[in-house]
Amino acid sequence: MTRFSRQLCLLLCATLPVACSQPSAPPPQTPEVGVLRIEPRPATIEAEYVAQLDASNTVEIRPRVGGLLEQQVAVEGETVEKGQLLFVIDRQPYIVELEQAKAALAQARAGLQQAERDLARVQPLSELDAVSQQELDSVTARESAGRAAVQAAQAAVRSAELNLEYTRVTSPVDGVVGRAQFRVGGLVTAYQSLLTTVYDTNPMYVNFSISERRMLELQEQFGARPPQSRYDDDNAFKLMLSDGSVYPHPAHLNLVDAAVDRETGTLPIRLEVANPDGLLRAGQFARVVVVVDRIDAALLVPQRAVQELQGRTSLWVLREDGTVDRRDVRMGARVGGDWIVEEGLQAGETIVVDGLQRLRPGIAVSPQKLEPAGVGDGR
């Protein structure tokens, strides 16, 4: 035997026992899954809408008389009270106008006094047939005309007084002054020029709209007009600000419009909310969370436990023998991180929440019980 043949034999003898003694592959491990026993519990169904805030009263401040703007008293953005002075228009022309009206009134009164004296002299003579009827009629007419002239002059004086008062532009409501549209020295026109806007911001209005479909659902559930008591609860509406915070004051239903908007096909709804601290401003956007329904005994499952495929929803249900089965279910409304099961699941059954990727129908699993407190946290 050659040297090479002897080495090959030794190598085969050394490796053959090792190859024959290798163990078989281990059986596949039972997958660990997180499971949850489903029990009925109360649920509040909410819907969320985009809303825009508006002042409960927005007043455009326009002058009642024209002239040069002489003074801007109120500071833009300042809170003012009803009757507080905002602007002053040049008063001198209206002071002169008032003096002229008073002088015309004095002249009219003097003419009336003369007519009354003439009538007092003529009337006794007329009774004695000392004057003609024509002269009596003329004196009587002058007295009536004088009386009318006095009334007209009094009205002119009152008009001049009002015009002089109108040179002081005051706020008709409590609120916040907006940006001034005219500066001192600007020429304003009576009833046309917009000086500024005053916003009554306490309370504030919250405007949003619901779809026509949602409106029909509510009508089917509660009738043509939902019961007012349904929205009297302070928790019926929740206002969420743009930073995600919840506005501390409750909102109440103020108006449900009588007609659907033809352009958008939605029904406008208005809420009213207190704004004592001035945190809310007109034009601000927010979200309205509306309590749609409250269910005393709902079957809630974590949304991550639900599988959706081609319009079908299913859950993995743990059997008593430790195997799992996929079951089609019909889902309802979402509540936070949970989902209401309307059909296909019974109270007391256990579903798989975590580890769904390793499942297939009929396999045995190693269930790890989850606490209900961790349900719906989105993990």
UniProtKB/TrEMBL annotation:
InterPro entries: MdtA-like_b-barrel, MdtA-like_BSH, MdtA-like_C, MdtA-like_HH, RND_pump_MFP. Residues 97-167 form the Multidrug resistance protein MdtA-like alpha-helical hairpin domain. This is Membrane fusion protein (Multidrug efflux system). Residues 203-293 form the Multidrug resistance protein MdtA-like beta-barrel domain. Residues 1-25 form the signal peptide. One of its GO terms (molecular function) is transmembrane transporter activity. Belongs to the membrane fusion protein (MFP) (TC 8.A.1) family. PANTHER family: ACRA/E-RELATED COMPONENT OF DRUG EFFLUX TRANSPORTER (PTHR30158). GO terms for cellular component: cell envelope; plasma membrane. Residues 298-358 form the Multidrug resistance protein MdtA-like C-terminal permuted SH3 domain. Pfam families: Beta-barrel_RND, BSH_RND, HH_MFP_RND, RND-MFP_C. Transmembrane segments: none annotated. It is found in: Cell inner membrane. It comes from Sinimarinibacterium flocculans. It is a lipid-anchor. It comes from the Bacteria.
